[in-house]
UniProtKB/TrEMBL annotation:
Protein name, UniProt field: CDP-alcohol phosphatidyltransferase
Coiled coil: none
Domain of life: Bacteria
High-level lineage: Bacteria, Bacillati, Actinomycetota, Actinomycetes, Kitasatosporales
Native organism: Streptomyces griseoruber
Transmembrane regions: 17-36, 71-90, 125-148, 168-187
Amino acid sequence: MAYVRAWRGRHPGVARGVWWAVTLLSLVLVIGALLLPNRMAALQVNRFVRLPGEAIIGAAVMLALPRRPRIALAALGGAVLGALTVLNLLDIGFMEYLGRDFNLVLDWGLLNDAQSYLADTLGGTTAVAAAIGVVLLVVLVITVTALATVRLSNILVRDTRMATRGTLIAGTAWITCSVLGFQYAGIPVASDRVANRLQSEARQVRDTIRDEAAFGKETRSDTFGNTPADQLVPDLRGKDMIFTFIESYGRSAIEDPIMAPGVDATLQARTEALAKAGFHAKSGWLTSATYGGSSWLGHSTTLSGLWVDNQQRYRTVMASDHLSLTKVFKKTGAWDTVGVMPGVQKGWPEAKYYGLDKVYNAFQMGYQGPKFSWSTMPDQYALEAFQQLEHSKERDKPLMSEIILTSSHQPWAPIPKMVGWDELGDGSIFDGIEAAGNKASDVIADSTKSKEEYGKSIQYSVTALTEWLERYGSDDTVLVFLGDHQPISRVSGQNASRDVPISIVAKDPKVLDKIASWNWTDGLRPAHNAPVWKMSSFRDRFLTAYGSTKHPKKG
């Protein structure tokens, strides 16, 4: 301190400039934190030209307190304000990627998933550096905001008479603006943003806790929970059933002006190719329970018939005995069941809920080729591995399969290309394709490029799946495939719907006749005005269409 005082004495002009600069920065930081919105689109000047009521109340309290309690309260208030700033930034990120706010109770685990995604996309070193950077940034924001608040409180009490007068004037102005509804550029001048945000967070925590109990009761009720095995899907007996989810396959792929031309041409070409092979399709729309990511929520919503839109609900469903659509086939005893999960790289206890006798993860399909960013292997290889490991085997029962295709997972770089089916081998053939592809870092930052490459990835996944069906499908094959969610808003657009396409493909005309009343569109491309259902309604509609008898189980 003595050194600092001596320096100030030698350089009074510089010291005064530094003092004013630090004070101004502290004021900007605190006011900015008080007014910071939690939406990217709201980061505009008019949001920061407002009068924060919390600052006025805080000033009044600081003026009334003795020194030590004042400093302690200022530091605590600044730390809370810093934490709210972090939550606002998390909301911005979650809204951009998942189309919703960050949930203070449920979403901390997703941050670990985000780090894993970065590691798979940009490399482990980048992911570790990013994680360290984020932690340091959070600590810095909270610490600096606390120090800034303390500094402003110290300055405030230097002249209590003037500060009191200024606080009264500001309070009067805030009340006047609030009562008269004064606005600037369409935004109220009087702001109580922090108070509203705290109330919102409290409501979200309360609602989340209440939802857990209510949803637990919902899972214990099941329209088909007590249906005898011989009364489940009798109209599909003898059919090889395949339920396939295509990552991020959303309505935008079919209707956005950048992606649609290529995707629609692919859907038309593949519809015609399947028709030549004897297959026909009907397609509609489902509204997904998730957006931009968290694919497992879309999978579980479709197959459970429950609206699974957060991690807490997902855990509740996975621990329940609520009948999943795939488990229906196991329960009948008339099908063998298998899962093909190239995105699974660790233990996956969910196999029990889905009724899968066997699951092939990323390490169990013999793949020796390169990863394509997050995707551990190209869809074409995963489908051929399924063919060689399970679908081609002689068996005394038909096969029910759940397949998750991952090549259309963001960041859509590099993207695999189709190769000859007889040339797949152990996947090494993809080495050159991966090396020649785009770098993820070049695509992530460019919205137009992301859209273009996303569209190509959907074309690839649809082509791989339908070529597999054309090559290996039989008269008794029934394919149900759909998207799990829309891509992130940078690709699907702000305020995009949550709709995803769904198609049922079969050779046996009786299979599609059973869903004629659904009014779905012929072919693989659903019409714009085709029926739109909640994703959670599909299970019961499907089971009913194929002859299942309702025997409800009460919660």
